Amino acid sequence: MDDKYWYLKRCELFEQLDGAQIARLETQSQVRIFDRKSLVYLPDDESDSVLLLVSGRVRIYHITTEGKEALLAFIDPGELFGELSIIGQAEREEFAETMEKSQIVKIPGQVIRDLMAENPDVTLGVTKLIGLRRQRFERRLKSLMFQPNRDRLVFLLLELAERYAVLHPDGIALRIRLSHQEMANIIGSTRETVTVVLGDLQQEGLLEVKRRQVILKNMERLASSIGAKPPDISGGVSNRTVRTGDS
User: Fold this and answer.
1) How far apart are CA 195 and CA 180, in angstroms?
2) % of the chain surpassing 70 pLDDT
3) Does 68 fall in a domain?
4) Is there a single domain that holds both residue 18 and residue 78?
5) Are residues 174 and 54 part of one domain?
6) Torsion angle in degrees (nearest 10) through CA of 94, 187, 129, 89
7) pTM of the model
8) Distance between CA atoms of 58 and 238, rounded to whole angstroms?
């Protein structure tokens, strides 16, 4: 396969496509570079395409009626977003913003629908993608309902460990680094409250925070503190050992 198609083959959804399908996909797509903190799309923008993140990171969020930011998801390289355009969503309903300089491929929604008609694996992949995103949203919503701030924050840390765990001499570190305000946006709290709860968890020896990097020192105890099971990180943990101060 021509190296110029590497960014398409990196997406799990397109792994089963043949050479002709990949080439057709590439010719109908547009690649664009976004600087850090650039808006990729806004609510009410026309939802006519699916987006593939090649490099960087994107966050998906909406603004509540109270004017607060509520973070819905993080998008990592190799992942699609804006996928509801495939099933007929006419307009975007949320904000998509880059967290760092990012390369993004814009793929017309009709192109994906044509591939779905040709390849059952693509149809299954799109269905799984939409289902997984909905499952994550529902799990987070349940964690926010009637739960104290401590439990919501612990749930978030365990959820992040499923995707961003990396070995660390003191336990498990999270590869994604979030500010206290960003954590507060996700769990529907305040920056001050997140700071206090993180301090309490550090005093209890459950975690450590250094230079915005969270290190889970005892994930089993952390999970049991909210009556949950430790997340299964066997399939996603990086074998590279990270030490405090690593980028």
Assistant:
1) 6
2) 90
3) yes
4) yes
5) no
6) -20
7) 0.80
8) 21
